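A protein record in our archive is deliberately plain, so that people and models can read it alike. The record that follows is passed on verbatim for readers who wish to inspect the format.
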Amino acid sequence: MTSPSSFTSIDAYVARCISLSEADFAYFHSQLTVKQYKKKSRLLSAGEICNFEAFINKGCCRVYYLNEKGNEVDLYFGIEEWWVSDMASFSQQKPSNLFIETLEDTELILISYEAKERLFNRIPAFERMFRLMIQRTHETLMKRLISSFSEPAEDRYLTFLAKYPAIVQRVPQHLIAAYLGITPEFLSKIRSKLKTQNR
């Protein structure tokens, strides 16, 4: 049986977006599934239909794809109070091009495609909440795309460091390097240079 405390963080997230009654929250909880995953668990593979949107209650995940050379390209990392999914695959119910895996032991609160449709029909206000979530995700990805084309590697790392200090401490350096589009060796040089400048 799921503990009510499992929903504390997601309820706070929802309350920042929309106003709900206790009965609405109770129905919302009934449409959710809480699951624990070990580190390096694969949540989604390319070719599968993504049938979940997941709120990270505890832990860390990454979303990535394979480029034409077969190399992993990280799109984003997610920690507590972030959502992970392939929204295109989820909303269109078509096979995904993405992979999602855990980088730590992780607890997720998941909603399925069918449960989300029931939720929208019962409580239309949730359409606003999920629309805001999609907008924020889109803005983040667009800023990241613009940065990758317009900023030198060192500036991209400093921006990442300033915006996601918690992630820097929890994600392996070779994955951060891949996210920034540089080699792990080059990232080490940037970090050494910054460390020297800050002495």
